[in-house]
Amino acid sequence: MNRFTRTPLALAIALISAGAGAADNTPVLEELTVTARRQAESLQELPVSATVFSAEDLDRSGVEDIADYFLLTPNVAVNESGTRGENSISMRGISNIGSGPNSSFALYVDELNVIPMISNPALQDVERLEVLRGPQGTYFGRNAAGGAINISTIRPGSDFEGKVAVEAASFGTYQGSATLNLPVSDTFMLRGTASLQESDGWIDNVNPAGGSNDQKNQNLRLAARWLASSALTVDTSFTLADEYSGLESGVATGKLSVGSIGLWGLNAIEQVPFFPRNQDKVNNDNPKSTDYGYQILNNRIEYRMDGMTLTSITGYAEGERKQDGDVDATGFDAVNLTRDAEMRFLSQELRLASTGSAPLRWTLGVSYLEQSFDVDLNVILGSFNPLGAPGGTLIRGLQSVNDTRNLAFFGEVDYELSERLTLSYGGRYSDDEVRQGEDVVNGTPAGPVAQNFAPVTRDFDNYSSKLALRLRHSEQLSSYVMASQGYRTGGVQLDPVLARPEFDPETLWSYEAGLKGSLLRGRVRFAAAAYHIDWKDLQVRTTVNGIDPVTGAFVIATGVENAARASSNGLELELQAYVRDDILSGFTLGYMDASYDDYENAVVDGATALLDLSGENLLDAPELTFSAFAEKRFQLAGWDAWARAEYSYVDDKVTSHLVYVPPTLFPVPFDFSFPYHVPSFDVVNLRAGFERGDYSVSLWVRNVTDENYYTGTFDDLFASGVHVRTHPREVGARVSVSF
Predict the structure, then answer these.
(1) Which of 25, 181, 527, 589 lies at a 20 to 30 A Cα distance from 694?
(2) CATH 2.40.170.20 for the 2-279+291-334+341-349+363-738 domain, yes or no
(3) How confident is the model at residue 569 (pLDDT cuts 50, 70, 90)?
(4) How many CB atoms lie within 10 A of CB 501?
(5) Each residue of 416-425: pLDDT tens digit?
(6) How far, in Å, CA of 204 to CA of 351, rounded?
(7) Do the strands 232-245 and 288-305 form a parallel or antiparallel pair, or are they unpaired?
(8) Opening angle at CA 258, ends 253 and 262, nearest 5
């Protein structure tokens, strides 16, 4: 680790020293505008830690999804699964125990929270992407205890323009996209963007009967803007997406999950080499597919009055995720699965905000949300299975309904105590109604056993507040201190295998101090923050997976329990600078110490006794994250050219409490340090581009050194065991034409 801890300071000194020798103040860094508080303001004026990516940043770095921009953000981590839309994330040690109804984070696209529907949207026609760390409940709503991702797309404009781009990359990957802006009249404009990506995938199935790792993603977004009057603006957008993947993008580790050990014994069946010797081969006898489609309608109305603005955001979405096929991931027809999940939500938000530059500025709002998440799951034995039952036997059936209603009132007030000192207070009251019901069928040696759990409803409410003090030392330098509360609602869990029929809300206090500024007439920009988080009733995922010793039923039960207390302390630093007129460089650094303060009697799947995890590290909380880039701009044969190098480092982390279980507490001694203790890794990316007029060409290489790394795990049932998503080197080229 020593080689990285010295890097940020050395780089900062080099950047500032080099910039100090500049003879003039050009070029300067573009001022970054954010909408984290639902109004346009400078990032340097915002009393919160945020990493912001402009449209040019996203393009130059080749960012396509959450795993890409999280590598460039301090104190965050992503736990990748085998499919694009099922990743989990963590910020400052606050991790996501499950996207959708109980996510720890908000994900907003054009002021609409889409996290009930999707956690990794395609980044098409994006103007700006903001990663906000720490509790963001005041403006970003329920459960935003860990932070928020705020995406703003390009609105329809008054000029006729468009862009077409095509891209080709390794593993038979092709992508095309098109954007068109059409001004119908002076007051009505349309904008549309569409993209299609197809790939053969890098996973090679050695069994010709078992399907492939092919992928196909289609996205369409249509937007309209109506300038109804000088005071009234209406923005409407419709997003349609379909994401298909065959076999998951991962390989077996040779380690079985706890439930699989009970069925197969200690050893996975090795039909192809295990990771890390193997990065791209599997042996699946039956095809597998995941098909996820969704539609989102977003309507924003803004009415400007004297001294204030009224804003309405109405959103409706529905989606379906279907999974079908092999889940034992071996050359044997052991276990297959069908899963059909349907999601819907309807939301409405109203905000009234003051305008102008008066000493007192304020925002008041109310929001309402209804969402449902229904699942129909069947686990079916194949012709060759560990239970010796006939092929086609249903061993687990589940039909569940999960409904949530939320009503919230929120507001924030900024008051200028003096010309330099501003006091801010924000608060949010949330009232949640959570409803869940289940019908379960478990297969037993004597036949199927049905259990019916009538829907149960629970109510949770909370008031969370935020207090911030910002001091403007000069036009170039400001500091702030902030204390804010975070809240994640509780929930219902009906399966009797789990210890409790419900879990409690999670609450936290976050304390933060920060410094933001610019140097050398805008050639250098920096932000630094230190924070302490203290929370209680931390929600922790538990899983029971195996054979019930009483009924002989096959059991898959996932639930949540509450750890007593936890804390996280950290530092964050971001810096960008023109070290020369033609060289832009920068880095981000995150340091984090996150652990359970008090977590006695922890339930860990497979352990024969309750554990005391007090003092152990939190899951998905790497101690050190670091990224750096350098970009040179030059002329080449009449073209504007650029070359960019990026480096990212993520420290080791733990992704499962199984790592903390002494081997003697398993029925048979077993060591889970691999793969659940994820090693540190570093990634190098290179990109270059050429631009002239309306034409642009770029070339790129991802993971230049072919680092054999993974960020998390996902389990297949039975003999193939735990899998990891691999990251082979990729090479590609992109051509675009604007008009």
Answers:
(1) 25
(2) yes
(3) very high
(4) 15
(5) 999 999 999 9
(6) 52
(7) antiparallel
(8) 110
